[in-house]
Every structure is written in C-alpha cells, then in structure tokens.
Write a structure and sequence with these properties.
single chain, 459 residues, mainly alpha, hpI Integrase, Chain A, three-stranded antiparallel sheet, 17 helices, 8 strands, globular, DNA binding, Site-specific recombinase XerD
Length: 459
Amino acid sequence: MARTTTDHKEGRATVRTVYFTSKVLADGSHPFLICITKDRKRKYLATGEKLHPRYWNAEKGGDYRKSIRRSYPDPQRNDLINSLAGWEAKYDTAAGTFVSNDEQHTSADVARKAAEERKAARRVKVLAYVEEIAAGMVKRGQIGNAGVYRDLGNQLAKFIGAEAGAPEPPLGRGREQERAEWVRAHDVPFDRVNVAFCNEWEATLRATGAEEITLSLRFRTLRAVLNKAIGEGVAKREKYPFASNAEERHKFQVGKFDTTTSKRAISRAELERLKALAPATERQQLAKEVFLFSYYAGGINFVDLAQLRWRDLSQTEGAGLRLHYTRQKTGGKFSLRLLAPAEAIIERYRPFTYAGPDAYIFPILNAEKHRTALQVKNRSHKVLGQVNQDLKALATAATIETPLTTYVARHTMATILKRAGVSTAIISETMGHSSESVTAVYLDSFASDVVDSAFENLL
C-alpha cells in the first residue's frame, strides 16, 4: 500500500520495455515485457506483444525503437512500436502519479495503479472511442484525418445497428444529440471486434458495392483505432483480430485487398502537349498550372499546394527561389529549390495574390475568408473538384487518354524520376510517401542538394 510521507522526496520508479529472450513462445518468438524497477526491486508484466528474433538487432542496445529491424514490414513494425510505447506510457504515468503526490510506493504499487486505470478506461466502447479520436484531430486542425475516422464511425454504426436490429444511426448537422444517444444505446465493447466481426463487416461492405481501395481504407483505419486503444489500455491485445505476421494466417488480413490502380502517369510527350496547350478559360489556366507546379515541385499534394503562402518562399543567392512547407498529412517538413518552370508559375500569380507574406500564393484560399481549419478544408475540397474537372477537359484537348487529376501529376513526377535512374529512396523522400518514422530517416540520410539534383531530371 502506498503511503504519504513528509520525511523525504519519494524517488520515481523506472519503466522500460524488455525483449525477454529467456522465454521462447510456440512460434519461436520472444515476448515483450514491461519492467518496473523501484528501490532495486523489479516487477515484470506481460504486454501481449512478441517478435521473432530474426527481426531483433541486439547490437542496438535493447531500445525497441532502434532494435526492431526495418526488415520487419510496416505497418506492423510501426504498430508494434506504438503499442509498446503505449504500454510504457501507462505504467510511467502511474509511477509519476506517486511521485507527484510524494507517496511511498513499490514497483507492485505502480503495476496495481496502472491496472486500475486500465480497468476504468475499458468502460469506453468502440464508437465512442472513434469519435474521441476524431474530435482530438479536429482540435489539432487535422480536419481531413478526422473525416476519415468519422466516416469509419458512421459505417461501423450502420453495421452494428443492422446486426442489432436497430434503426439507422442519425447523421448530419443538427442531429448530434440524437446520434450521441443512439451510440450510448447501441455501442459495443472492443471485445466484440474480433475476426468474425471483421469477416462479417467485409461481407456487408462488399454487398453494398464497396471497392477494394475502400475496403482497404476502412480496415486500415479500424486497425489504427484498435492499435491506439490497446496502447492506451482501452482494449485487450488478446482479442486483436488483425494478422501481425505470417504465423497469424488465421486472423484478418488487411493486405489481402487488391489496391492496385490503373495507369496514372502520363508520358513526357503527353506532358509536353499539355504544356503547349492554351486553356480556354482562366479556371482551366489555374488547373493546368496547379498540375505543372505539382509536377515540378516534387509532386506536392493539392492540399499542401493550396495552403502555400508567400512566406514559405526564400531567395537563395544565385539559386533562385526555395520552397519550404510542412505536409498536412504526415507533418513531414520539406525544402526544395524551385525549378525555373515552377518559379515562373509563382511569379505569374505574384501581382494578383501577394498582399504580404501571410497571403496565399495560389488563388484558391483567401486569408481573410478562410480562417478556420474547416473553412480551409471545405474550400480546398470544392476547388479540387473544379481543378480535376478542368484537367479532364484539358486532357481531351491535348489528346491524352489518361484521365488527368492532380494525383496524376504526382505520379508522373515519380515515374519520370524512376525512369531517369533516381533511387526509390530519394523519390520517397520527395513525395513523403512513407510513414513518418521512415520519412524522418530519409530526411536525415540525404542532403537537400541531392534532392535538388534529382529534380533536374524533370526538365
């Protein structure tokens, strides 16, 4: 039992994750345990996580963030790291509570307190937890990601309600209170989301005509929710329905969905025809220049392009303009020298949009009108639809068979760089295609001049 003391300042228990090689599981893997140390006494607790030794690099000092080999495929590697970090955080928080209250305690006290907190947290159910994640994203300005999670919550609610014979869940503005009451009445615990649940939901989605890419997105998002819930002690690892390695073939396989897409890149010859084309309207001119700027600026995503401000440009002596921006989707930071065609597009808009460093470069957003994250999202989504519509008309005029979208510019950039012999790693860096952890490694691995040199192949 923890005791309050005024005689001394209570020391803090240390919490760390241990790859416990002394125990070998049935599939040859070793478990990860949480080790709590207080006054030289240790207590080990199971996390439910495990890893085959071929994916563990003992030479990295035992820190799981470094020792789990990159050959362990993502997203499983990233999911495992996040789960272990969540376990550490729970016990470390419990240890910190004792220190804050200056209570004498043992390692067993820390374990017991964390268990009590996890037990209380498990009262949270699936739909409520998904909404909690989405609401947090809205507060952080991640409107697009919040929409993905809320869409997941809506689809899950329909499925859960149909299984229970309940009426359709209320949706739309002005019905938030009705929906909250519906969720309280029909929500399910995390234990309900098992392999059978996933198989049944997949069959239901397929019956509605959902395509493979939609199925992949739905289940990847659900998997992310469960990983977060396990890391926070809201759900139990024992009921986890998704396969984490080849030995778990009996579990639900998110990778089974065929997300291959039709040809998205256009050839250099088609690109030249688009460049030579004279748009019929100013709106088509914007669409053309958005496409070309994305191509010449490393495949910048439309959402990021729309939010570029004049302050994001810097003049480098003898090397023209340099663009600095943060990718909305991943938070990755990018810095690239603008090629001459991209710089020319920028300068074309300067007389019309420059009203100070905080003004937007492209005439998509208005700093005075679009102030909130939701206003920015809605305006960007509207203009993106117009741009893609106009790009298809330009493709017809330029005799390009591939239906043009802003994504095609991004894909074309990557394809042309690859055919020019630029390494996949550098292309991945320019596009921010990988997970945040992998992107961070790329950013540490390549100097800006290496990426700048690669862009020369786009001319």
